[in-house]
């Protein structure tokens, strides 16, 4: 029992140390990307904001339109 606890503790400490060293000496954290969905009553669209560059990309459908008609169906 004590061997498995010490092995688990050593593994956890190793992971924490590796994460600290990676952050301090190089590997920057990944840049956040924010996705937004606009569900409008007539048209809908999806955009991705890249926080590092400040650029917003609007995703187009297969025909190239960036605004997709909103559809409601009654069955």
TrEMBL record:
Signal peptide: 1-22
PROSITE patterns with a match to the protein in the record: HSP70_1 (PS00297)
GO molecular function terms attached to this record: ATP binding; ATP-dependent protein folding chaperone
Highest rank taxon of the organism: Eukaryota
Record's keyword annotation contains Transmembrane helix: no
Pfam family, one: HSP70
GO biological process: response to stress
Keywords associated with the record: ATP-binding, Nucleotide-binding, Signal
Keyword set includes Protease: no
Family membership: Belongs to the heat shock protein 70 family.
Protein name: Uncharacterized protein
Native source species: Wuchereria bancrofti
């Amino acid at each position: 029992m004590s061997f498995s606890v010490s092995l688990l503790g050593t593994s956890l400490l190793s992971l924490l140390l590796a994460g600290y060293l990676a952050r301090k000496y190089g590997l920057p954290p990944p840049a956040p990307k924010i996705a937004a969905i606009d569900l409008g009553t007539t048209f809908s669209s999806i955009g991705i904001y890249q926080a590092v560059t400040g650029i917003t990309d609007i995703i187009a459908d297969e025909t190239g339109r960036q605004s997709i008609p909103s559809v409601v169906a009654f069955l």
